[in-house]
Amino acid sequence: VSLPKFTLxxxxxxxxxxxxxxxxxxxxxxxxxxxxxxxYRRVLSRGVQTLGYGSEYGEPRLLRALTAHLSSARGVxxxxxxxxxxxxxxxxxxxxxxxxxxxxxxxxxxALGYPPxxxxxxxxxxxxxxxxxxxxxxxxxxxxxxxxxxxxxxxxVTPHHQYPTAVTMSAPRRQGLLALAERHGFxxxxxxxxxxxxxxxxxxxxxxxxxxARLVIHVGTLSxxxxxxxxxxxxxxxxxxxxxxxxxxxxxxxxxDQTLEAALAEWLDDGEFxxxxxxxxRAYAERRDALAAALEQHFAEGLEFxxxxxxxxxxxxxxxGMPVERLAELAxxxxxxxxxxxxxxFDRRPREFLxxxxxxxxxxxxxxxxxxxxxxxxxxxx
Length: 382
Ligand SMILES: Cc1ncc(COP(=O)(O)O)c(C=O)c1O
Fold this sequence. Notes:
It is a single chain. 40% of the residues lie in helices and 15% in strands. By secondary structure, the protein is of the alpha/beta class. The chain has a 7-stranded mixed sheet with strand order 2-10-9-8-7-3-4, with helices on both faces. Helix 3 crosses helix 7 (239-250). The protein is globular.
């Protein structure tokens, strides 16, 4: 039997035992597993309630705990029926495309962005168009052009810390984006994947916190804060959108892992969420400074970057005299993983930029990793 054409990219294997100077992975060693295990045991010892079929929206206790958290930490208000727990934010992307788009409908994405979301939207049946960025975020003139000449149903953005450049969308750009969405009648899918990690000043509140027309679909995850292996994310949006997502979800995996969700709700209610956030923030701030110091020591000339105001990575322009793709290849041979810009480019063209992340390793591991990069560059210049 021959299979039909299949265009999804294969998963890149994640190399073992490398120093991963990449943005996405939190240090799961910081996570108090014992406390989650205790909460899990408490939930199960109370009875069999979480072992049956339940709500496709999520375990009610986690919905309540997340609603309270989103309101107090982000100013995002979700009434009953406006929040859905997903298996990581990844699940939200195909569900959203399927819920919002008919054949031929378009979702706009950032020209440098998060490819797993793009594939998710395609899987849900959306056509994608890329919109360029500038220093304030996604370009509204180009988005408007697109809205005028296509059936634009939504735009997917990462306003808090643009993925992968770490730029925070400016206040005028935020207002302009919401006004444009209202004028042309499209949704704004806001991926707020690392809200907790903002270093200079206060975190900027999400688009969803000032959205009377309820055009923003706020997507979040516990992957960056806690651990990606938990597979817990969520979507907050107007009820008619969330209801569609919930119905679709019924026919994919019926419901989430209720026992885990109930345990996480206890963990959140116990205040452990805040304690963990403080711990992780302290560790990552130190690691950000360690990466900055190591880059300044070894690459004062070769890499140009600004200390990011938030997020878990640096976006650095390379003047190293060797292609960033080649540096990444040689680095991997020597046990250091870095991501060149091409990985995030909608057009798949190389650019002389690197995304360098710091959350996954201690300052001394970071120093060692950057030392390896420096040795490669030095050898190539010799
Ligand atoms: C932009 C962005 N969105 C979402 C996620 C989280 O994905 P998930 O919640 O599916 O683990 C990540 C993780 O790498 C990300 O970088």
